[in-house]
Amino acid sequence: MGIATLVVSSMFGRVPGLAVCGPSGGAGPVIAFELVRTAEQVLALFGSEPCTSTLIAAQREALWLDLLGFIPAYAAFLALGAFALRRSGLLLALVTMSVFLAAGTFDELEGLVMFRILGAMPGSDAMYQALFWTVRPKFALLGAGEILLAALLWRGPLLAKIASGLLLAGGLASLYFLFNDPHAPAMMKAHSYAWGALLVVALIGVVRPDFVTRETPAA
Questions:
Q1: Whole-angstrom Cα distance, residue 211 to residue 114?
Q2: Of 85, 103, 139, 157, which has the fewest beta carbons less than 10 angstroms from its beta carbon?
Q3: By the 8 A CB rule, do 45 and 24 touch?
Q4: Long-range contacts for 29-34 (Cβ within 8 Å, ≥24 apart)?
Q5: In the chain, what are the domain boundaries?
Q6: Rounded to whole angstroms, what are the CA distances from 61 to 14, 17, 54, 134?
Q7: pTM
Q8: Predicted confidence (pLDDT) per residue in 10-58, tens digit
């Protein structure tokens, strides 16, 4: 599922017209849309015609890709990654799985809200409240889940401990930017680095599981 996540994520860059029409605060078009709080902000982001119509169509295509491809792929990848580390602590692994599945659920709900906004541009205050309370918890849960994965990996051999440090750094950095500057590209880069570390560990673990987890549960 990690490879599937990587492949689907690369497809967002191929969506025609997926480029902001106005100020985005440094965030990409999808993240900038997720972070809007008011009708004024969304109108500024979508700019004027002909860019507006092009971006609306592109955002719809990206949302379908997100809902049907990216979210299921990354939620499964992260949750299964936690399950694969259950020897390091079953309860912690189950909690981590639940955190990632909750993040995926919030992400799916977020997509539905964004579809509503696109269909009723510029949208209502209630829609932006709903967007806030799906987007922020999603990112917070992803950051927290990465930290929990780091705790699971830390209980393993040396390679797992190295990956643990990368996941911990990614989780902490993503949470820092979420609460201080969510538009900064560094927030999404922190997630991507953490997921990349997990993917490398997963690929190595397929061949040499003893490099990733211990043979017996940690005390």
A1: 42
A2: 157
A3: yes
A4: 29/55, 29/58, 29/59, 29/62, 30/59, 30/62, 30/66, 31/182, 31/183, 31/187, 31/188, 32/183, 33/59, 33/114, 34/110, 34/114, 34/131, 34/135
A5: 2-211
A6: 11, 10, 11, 20
A7: 0.91
A8: 888 899 999 989 888 888 999 999 999 999 999 999 999 999 999 999 9
